[in-house]
Amino acid sequence: MGPGRINKHQLFYAAILTVLAISVFYDRSVNACYEYQFCLTPLNYSGRYMKDETYGDMPDKAKMLCDGFCHHNSTLRLRCCASDATVKLERISEQVCRYNHLIRGFVIFGEIAKDNEFPFMAALGWRIKNETTGNTTIVYKCGGTIYDRGYVITAAHCLYHSSDLPVVVRPGGFALNDTEAWDLEIEEVIEHPNYEYPNVYNDIAIIRLKTIFYGNPFHDQPACLYDDPSSAHNVTAIGYGNTQFAGVSSPLLMKTNLSTIGNNECQLHYEPDSDVLSDGIISTQICAKDHEKLRDTCQGDSGGPIIKFIKPKDLNPMSLVVGITSFGIGCGTGMPSVYTRISEYIDWIENVTYRTVPI
Ligand SMILES: *[C@@H]1O[C@H](CO)[C@@H](O)[C@H](O)[C@H]1NC(C)=O
Ligand SMILES: *[C@@H]1O[C@H](CO)[C@@H](O)[C@H](O)[C@H]1NC(C)=O
Ligand SMILES: *[C@@H]1O[C@H](CO)[C@@H](O)[C@H](O)[C@H]1NC(C)=O
Ligand SMILES: *[C@@H]1O[C@H](CO)[C@@H](O)[C@H](O)[C@H]1NC(C)=O
Ligand SMILES: *[C@@H]1O[C@H](CO)[C@@H](O)[C@H](O)[C@H]1NC(C)=O
Ligand SMILES: *[C@@H]1O[C@H](CO)[C@@H](O)[C@H](O)[C@H]1NC(C)=O
Ligand SMILES: *[C@@H]1O[C@H](CO)[C@@H](O)[C@H](O)[C@H]1NC(C)=O
Ligand SMILES: *[C@@H]1O[C@H](CO)[C@@H](O)[C@H](O)[C@H]1NC(C)=O
C-alpha cells in the first residue's frame, strides 16, 4: 500500500461521510466534473480533477496544491489539484480552449471517426413514447455546443419544448440519420438562475454529460467561448433547422453565413413587448442577419451556436461561440435573429463548470 492510502475501515467511514456530505451539501449547480477536467481551487489556482488514488500517490508537495472538491456522481468525489500556486491571467475557459487546440504531432489511441466540419455541434434528444406501439424513440429538437468535453451549452427555452427534459445529446455534428453517430446520456441540466420562461432574457442553459465526448482524434475540439462583447462579426449559424423558427426540417446539419449587428439596429425590428421582451434587445443579447437577404435556410436551431472562426498562431484553428440561437421572426426575411450573447455569461459558465466546492 502506497503512502497516503487509506484502509478499508477508513474507506467505509469516508464513504458514509461522503454520502452525508452529498446529501447535506450537494449543490447540483456546482458539483459537476469528470476525472482530469480543468478546475479552479478555492484560491483560483487552475488544476485538474483527480481521484483519491491519484492524490494518494502524489508527493506531499504536490498534495499541498490540492484543494476543493466536486462530485462526479453520488459515489465518486474528485479533488482539484493545481499545478502551481499562481492565479493565471488567462481565464479558465481560455486555458481549456488553448489546451484543446494545441497542435499535437501524433495520436496515441483511438479510432479515426468521421471527419465532420463542426465536431462541437450537438443535437438535444428527447425520449418520445409511441402510444400505439409503446416503443420509445429519440426525437432531436434543439441544438447545442460542446465547449468542454463534458459540457454542452444550449438555450434555456429548449428545456420547455416539452414537459420532459432532454435525455441524450448527439455530439459531433453528424447528420441525424447518420448510422455512424452515437448519443451521450445527459447527467444534469442547469438552467440559468435568472431565466424565466417564456421571457427571452438569460436564455442559456448548461448540460452536463454522463460520459465525455471524444470523436475523431484529429478533429474533435470543443468550441471556445468568445469573451469579446463587441458586435460586428461575420459569423456562421449552424443547426439542423428542426425547431419552430427555423423553417427547414432536415436531418442534415446546415450552415448560413451571417453578420452580427448592433443592438440599436436590431431594436428597430423588435417592439419591446411587455410579456417576453419587456426591455427590448439588451446587452446580454446579440443580433445577426443575412445582409444579402437571399438564403432560404434559417438562422440555425434554437440552442445552436453562431460561430466565429479564427486561426491563432501556433494553435489549431478555433471556432468561437459568439451567441446561442434564441429567437427570431422568420426565415429568409432579411430580419435579424436574436442570440444570447456568450461574452456576458462566461463568469456564470465558468462558475458552473470549473469552480470547486470547499468541503
Ligand atoms: C476567485 O475568483 C472569484 C470569481 O472571479 C472571486 O469571486 C473570488 O473572490 C476569488 N477568490 C479568491 C480567493 O481570490
Ligand atoms: C460513478 O462514476 C464512476 C466512474 O465513472 C463509476 O465507476 C461508478 O459506477 C459511478 N457510480 C454511480 C453510482 O453511478
Ligand atoms: C407509432 O408507431 C406506428 C407503428 O410503427 C407508426 O405507424 C406511427 O406513426 C407511430 N406514431 C408516432 C407518433 O410516431
Ligand atoms: C417495438 O418494440 C418491439 C420490441 O422492442 C419491436 O419488436 C418492434 O419491432 C417495435 N416496433 C416498431 C414499430 O418499431
Ligand atoms: C439522410 O437524409 C438525407 C436528407 O433527407 C438523405 O439525403 C440521406 O441519404 C440520408 N442518409 C442516410 C444514411 O439515410
Ligand atoms: C465580413 O465579410 C465581408 C465580405 O466577406 C467583408 O467585406 C467584411 O469586412 C467582413 N466584416 C467583418 C466585421 O469582418
Ligand atoms: C462563409 O464564411 C466562411 C468563413 O468566414 C467563408 O470561408 C465562406 O466562404 C463563406 N461562405 C459564403 C457562401 O459566403
Ligand atoms: C457561483 O456559484 C455560487 C454557488 O452556486 C454562487 O453563490 C455564486 O454567486 C456564483 N457566482 C457567479 C459569478 O455566478
Automatic annotation (TrEMBL):
- Signal peptide range equals 1-32
Top-rank lineage group of the source organism: Eukaryota
Q: Domain Peptidase S1: where?
A: 107-354
The record's section on PROSITE patterns has:
TRYPSIN_DOM, TRYPSIN_HIS, TRYPSIN_SER
The record's section on CDD domains has: Tryp_SPc (cd00190)
Key word Disulfide bond present: yes
Q: Which SMART domains does the record associate with it?
A: Tryp_SPc (SM00020)
Q: Write out the entry's keywords from A to Z.
A: Disulfide bond, Hydrolase, Protease, Serine protease, Signal
This chain's protein is named Trypsin-1
Taxonomically, what lineage is the organism?
A: Eukaryota, Metazoa, Ecdysozoa, Arthropoda, Hexapoda
